[in-house]
């Protein structure tokens, strides 16, 4: 234990040596594990102290009471939560940093310093651990700033605000303790099963737990009284208030723990003080039309919540070790690209995994079907379930961490669409009650179908597991036939997943070609003799004739002043190594917005290029930022696809010719898209130079901080089993073809303004025209664009020498 403590202290100080003195992000992840256990800290104060504001739900409109106090030589200092009136004793945040799994604050309270770490474990290859809806808060790394000894006690509590959105809701609570641990449990007196109130769960059981140790005390009751007793005595009285009441009644019911660490000197280092917070829901989702309900995957291993809490607390040391490896792996790889890229991955990784529930099916008789199914909520935009556009955007992250995640996300979509002529954009518009998709999905059919085919093939190619494409081969083939018929001659009411017109949309056509290409490769993998995709030859030629003008390949001509940071980051993965300056500028622009704590969100999905402000209802916490892993996913090897054969190879020679044609078409279109991206970048740079003087007066560049810690996924320890034995996919294998379409997956959506499909008006042609005209000093017609393209080759070379900063944000 002593060696482990020394090791972790050394790792932390190595991390701080590379970190900036403060976090400059506006919204810091604290407890971010599931769609409903999603607590953040609003970083609005220049001191960047977690003791300035209360933690908030990810929507930034709901306080989650979570307090922390440290008592040094009889003086109390608050280190977490809004000011509690502790006689002016304030803590100071000496340093702070963030990794993919942790947010760490170095706190100074008088002569004592310590680390407060908010730790949300990420276990991509261990579904049991990943599905447990708990996170850790711990303090360690104690030191004194003088040569004296000091008496130190620490305290933390949560309030019942975690149990319901409405603070007038009646709640009840209890506690459990044994020889090693204790937990408080609070829930609504009348839970509302499967109710989502403005993204907040109304059916949750909230737990606050800790390990027993020397000097430990607890109390449940009025938050004012709990804190007052600790401030006065340094301990609590082990009493339970049983006056069940409303969340905001009688000074807010709170559930608290305290630990007396005794006398501390410069050479002493107590064990970490650990708390765990959890938000448990059962069932997690329901299908009223089947009927079927989904419960947490961890229930395959544990029979009751006490065992879950005990296992989670007992696994802390192992979880911390694994997370260090996990963080270091990501940070090491990302830092080879740029430190700013590593910073971005640090703030988006937790929200990718927290958008999902890892489930198994519970039958009406209570029996559990061990088949895993993952359900994703469309965080920050809507309550859609398994939104295809988000899955498509997040694909690089899922492939990078564990391609099996893709299979288990697609399974719920595919199993309910075996007779559908085209793919639906999601499972339905509500979460966690999943109704059949009743929106007018045919308008989104081309976009959703192309995406689903690409995702299915990408999973098979990067995992080597062809079971999904074999099992749903007839469905996928039917969808590909739909694309062949409709993609190049889209119905007039076709729209993209972003709500923009799809007729003669080059981006939509490109995605269709990628989808058809993917089906051709699926045919190859399963041994099908189907050669119907030869039609693509004629369709592709028609496409190039009708849409070949470069003006049709615009990445942002319709909304030129709207930034889509997730697509910008995935676009960076398509930039050749010879154009690193362009790639790094893309990363830098996103980083500049992410680390601007004058804005209310760390990374909204869309924001103004001029001001950095949110566009429409675009929020944060979306899994679509898995697109940022595109640069790391490029290094993933392809694998021989092991699939059940569905036909002979009699059409193999013809199909090879089709594949060659497809590769050429897609490769050519991708190159044109890349050229147009360069043009867009160049034109924006010209525009930014004109406004540079004004913007520099309005905006001060935030300083980045360094993130230096990470984990290797898939380890199984301490009796917590993985859902199944998974083949390690670390060794390279022969590629299926010389062309790698996955490099270009996000390009068809780059320019689009994503909202919940089917729930917003489609922009009129005049509106799009107005947006375009107001953001260009010169005409934007096709002829001028062709002239600019002719000049682009010279400009690309000069862009490498750019030294000006990108546009700032007022």
Automatic annotation (TrEMBL):
Superkingdom field: Eukaryota
Sequence intervals crossing the membrane: 661-682
- What biological-process terms (Gene Ontology) are attached? carbohydrate metabolic process
Q: Does the keyword Thylakoid apply?
A: no
Query: Which SUPFAM superfamilies does the entry link to?
Result: Six-hairpin glycosidases
Read off the lineage from the record. Answer: Eukaryota, Fungi, Dikarya, Basidiomycota, Agaricomycotina
| One Pfam entry name | GtaA_6_Hairpin
Residues of the Glutaminase A N-terminal domain: 101-332
Official protein name in the record = DUF1793-domain-containing protein
Question: What residue spans carry the Polar residues bias annotation?
Answer: 706-737, 766-781
Record flagged with keyword Transmembrane = yes
Ranges where the record places region Disordered: 690-737, 752-785
* Keywords on record: Membrane, Signal, Transmembrane, Transmembrane helix
Domain Glutaminase A central positions: 338-544
The stretch of residues making up the signal peptide is: 1-19
């Amino acid at each position: 234990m002593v060696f482990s403590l020394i090791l972790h202290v050394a790792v932390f100080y190595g991390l701080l040596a590379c970190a900036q003195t403060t976090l400059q992000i506006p919204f810091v992840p604290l407890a971010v594990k599931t769609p409903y256990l999603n607590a953040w800290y609003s970083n609005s104060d220049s001191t960047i102290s977690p003791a300035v504001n209360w933690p908030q739900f990810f929507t930034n409109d709901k306080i989650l009471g979570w307090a922390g106090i440290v008592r040094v030589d009889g003086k109390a200092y608050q280190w977490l939560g809004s000011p509690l009136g502790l006689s002016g004793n304030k803590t100071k945040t000496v340093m702070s940093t963030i990794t993919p799994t942790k947010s760490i604050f170095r706190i100074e309270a008088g002569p004592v310093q310590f680390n407060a770490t908010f730790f949300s474990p990420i276990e991509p290859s261990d579904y049991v651990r990943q599905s447990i809806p708990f996170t850790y808060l711990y303090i360690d790394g104690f030191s004194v700033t003088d040569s004296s000894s000091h008496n130190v006690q620490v305290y933390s509590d949560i309030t019942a605000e975690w149990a319901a959105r409405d603070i007038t809701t009646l709640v009840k609570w209890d506690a459990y303790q044994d020889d090693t641990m204790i937990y408080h449990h609070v829930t609504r007196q009348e839970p509302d099963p499967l109710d989502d109130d403005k993204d907040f769960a109304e059916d949750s059981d909230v737990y606050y737990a800790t390990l027993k140790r020397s000097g430990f005390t607890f109390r449940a009751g009025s938050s004012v009284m709990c804190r007052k007793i600790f401030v006065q005595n340094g301990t609590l009285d082990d009493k339970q208030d049983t006056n069940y009441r409303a969340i905001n009644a009688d000074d807010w019911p709170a559930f608290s723990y305290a630990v007396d660490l005794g006398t501390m000197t410069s050479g002493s280092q107590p064990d970490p003080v650990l708390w765990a917070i959890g938000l448990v829901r059962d069932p997690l989702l329901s299908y009223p039309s089947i009927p079927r309900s989904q419960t947490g995957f961890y229930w395959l291993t544990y029979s009751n919540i006490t065992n879950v809490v005990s296992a989670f607390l007992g696994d802390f040391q192992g979880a911390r070790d694994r997370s260090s490896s996990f963080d270091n792996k990501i940070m090491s790889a990302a830092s080879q690209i740029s430190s700013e890229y590593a910073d971005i991955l640090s703030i988006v990784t937790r929200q990718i995994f927290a958008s999902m529930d890892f489930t198994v099916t519970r039958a009406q008789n209570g029996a559990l079907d061990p088949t895993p199914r993952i359900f994703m909520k469309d965080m920050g935009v809507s309550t859609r379930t398994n939104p295809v556009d988000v899955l498509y955007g997040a694909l690089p992250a899922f492939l990078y961490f564990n391609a099996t995640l893709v299979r288990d996300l697609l399974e719920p979509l595919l199993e309910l669409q075996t007779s559908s002529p085209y793919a639906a954009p999601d499972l339905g518009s509500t979460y966690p009650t999943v109704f059949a998709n009743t929106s007018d999905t045919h308008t989104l059919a081309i976009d959703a179908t192309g995406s689903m085919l690409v995702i299915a093939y990408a999973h098979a190619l990067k995992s080597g597991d062809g079971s999904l494409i074999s099992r749903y081969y007839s469905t996928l083939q039917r969808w590909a036939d739909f694309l062949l018929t409709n993609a190049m001659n889209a119905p007039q009411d076709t729209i993209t997943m972003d709500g923009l017109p799809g007729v003669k949309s080059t981006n939509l056509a490109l995605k269709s070609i990628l989808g058809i290409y993917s089906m051709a490769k699926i045919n190859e993998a399963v041994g099908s003799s189907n050669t119907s995709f030869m039609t693509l030859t004629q369709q592709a030629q028609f496409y190039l004739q009708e849409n070949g003008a470069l003006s049709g390949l615009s990445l942002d001509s319709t909304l030129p002043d709207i930034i889509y940071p997730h697509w910008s980051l995935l676009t960076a993965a398509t930039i050749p190594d010879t154009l690193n300056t362009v790639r790094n500028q893309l990363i830098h622009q996103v980083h500049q917005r992410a680390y601007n704590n004058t804005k209310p969100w760390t990374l909204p999905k869309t924001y103004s290029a001029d001001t950095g402000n949110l566009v429409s209802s675009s929020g944060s916490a979306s899994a679509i930022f898995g697109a940022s892993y595109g640069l790391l996913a490029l290094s993933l090897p392809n694998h021989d696809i092991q699939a059940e054969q569905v036909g002979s190879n009699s059409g193999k020679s013809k199909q090879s010719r089709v594949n060659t044609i497809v590769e050429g078409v897609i490769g050519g279109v991708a190159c044109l898209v890349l050229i147009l991206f360069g043009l867009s970048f160049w034109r924006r740079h010209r525009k930014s130079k004109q406004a540079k003087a004004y913007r520099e007066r309005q905006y001060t560049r935030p300083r980045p901080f360094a993130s230096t810690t990470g984990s290797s996924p898939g380890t199984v320890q301490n009796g917590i089993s993985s859902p199944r034995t998974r083949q390690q996919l670390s060794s390279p294998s022969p590629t299926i073809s010389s062309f790698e379409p996955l490099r270009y997956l996000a390009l068809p959506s780059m320019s689009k303004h994503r909202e919940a499909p089917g729930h917003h008006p489609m922009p009129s042609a005049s509106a799009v025209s107005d947006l375009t005209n107001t953001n260009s000093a010169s005409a934007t017609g096709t002829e001028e664009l062709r002239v600019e393209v002719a000049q682009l080759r010279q400009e690309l070379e000069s862009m490498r020498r750019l030294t000006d900063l990108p546009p700032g944000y007022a």
